[in-house]
Specification:
Length: 371
């Protein structure tokens, strides 16, 4: 939920909160509320001018998006049309339950360059961040992010992180280690065909205070690499077909995975006044093979007021280590009700039946208020 310049003021808000728990597991919520309550964003922003702003609360900064949510203060100032500087000061969410954790302090600063020409978009950010645990250095790194659409129909996104600090056997020193490199390309060949690809390579990111009892296990410079390719094709006005394939691998051979996903969507089915989508997913890992096939049907029930979805999925799992195979049959339904122009209500139910005739239920509701 977002409210931009509420009441024509300089204040804006952003909020994304969910509460979710399984029936019969209320004791887990009583033990720790944040087992069910997840605050993904909750912030207020004040615009001093068109070029400067200050945010307070939990928020993901688009200039340094791979860092995830930041709890605290975020300031940004733009100058000379296409330059900007910013600073963050606060904490990281708790890595176990995503709650606010005052022990995980962090601070950083960044400088950025954005395009002045709206028809030739590009944006680059360079940041340095210091993260702490109980006031001791946990991680210190440089972050770089770049995106552009300088070539017609081609969108590029890339980011990397370089760690600057290590602490092994209580011996702290500054060092340089590339821990993350990610590149993504999206190219629209024509109105009917688009292609996408991405590559990432990640090393172990070590938080020296958070995981100080496990440093010896993490210190090996294990690299995980991943490749992803795909296409979307619209051969006819109401039909879209897409395929995505990904492959992830490590030097050790552990945690390798191959995944193939495809969908076929009919945006309008004649006579029935519905849209339908068929999906298939094949996954292969070191310990599990799975197959999933699904069908989703969507329809507007009351024009402009009420719409609904109905879906079914069949999933087969094969656990290699135990030579064990099981299946699940899943069905779900959801409704979106537009009460007023700015107020909406959403309700969702899903049921799953396994081979042993056990039934699992999932129920979710949302109230959406726009400002």
């Amino acid at each position: 939920m977002r409210g931009n310049h509420i009441g024509n003021s300089r204040f804006s808000t952003e909020c994304n909160i969910t509460f979710r728990h399984s029936l019969g597991e209320w004791a887990d919520v009583q033990d720790n509320l944040y087992n069910a309550l997840k605050v993904y964003s909750l912030s207020v922003r004040y615009d001093f001018s068109k070029n400067s702003s200050l945010s307070l609360g939990r928020k993901i900064n688009s200039r340094i998006s791979s860092m995830g949510a930041i709890d605290g203060l975020q300031f940004e100032l733009a100058f000379k049309k296409n330059f900007l500087v910013g600073a963050i000061a606060g904490a990281r969410p708790n890595y176990q339950d995503y709650s606010f954790d005052p022990n995980l302090l962090q601070a950083g600063a960044y400088i950025g360059h954005v395009s002045a020409n709206p028809n030739k978009f590009y944006q680059s950010t360079l940041a340095i961040v210091d993260q702490r645990n109980h006031f001791l250095t946990d991680r210190r790194f440089i972050y770089f992010q770049h995106s552009n659409s300088l070539v017609k129909n081609l969108n590029v996104f890339s980011s990397f992180e370089v760690d600057l600090f290590e602490n092994i056997n209580n011996e702290a020193k500054n060092t340089l280690s590339l821990t993350n490199l990610f590149v993504s390309l999206q190219y629209r060949v024509s109105k009917k065909l688009s292609l996408s690809s991405s590559y990432d390579t990640r090393k172990n990111v070590i938080y020296y205070e958070s995981y100080k009892n496990y440093i010896d296990q993490l210190i090996e410079d294990e690299t995980r690499q991943g490749m992803r390719v795909g296409f979307n094709l619209r051969p006819f006005k109401t039909i879209t077909w897409g395929v995505n394939a990904s492959w992830r691998f490590q030097k050790s051979g552990e945690n390798d995975s191959k995944n193939l996903n495809s969908f076929l969507t009919f945006s309008r089915v004649p006579l029935l006044n519905i849209s339908a989508s068929l999906t298939a997913n094949l996954l292969q890992t070191g310990y599990l093979n799975s197959k999933m096939f699904g069908l989703r049907i969507s329809r507007e029930i009351v024009k402009g007021k009420l719409s609904g979805d109905l879906y079914v999925r069949m999933v087969d799992y094969h656990y290699k280590n135990y030579e064990y195979t099981t299946s699940q049959y899943i069905g779900g339904v959801d409704f979106n009700l537009r009460i007023t122009r700015n107020l909406g209500f959403y309700v969702f139910y899903e049921g799953a039946l396994d081979d042993e005739k056990r039934i699992y239920h999932l129920f979710n509701t949302k109230v959406i208020q726009r400002f």
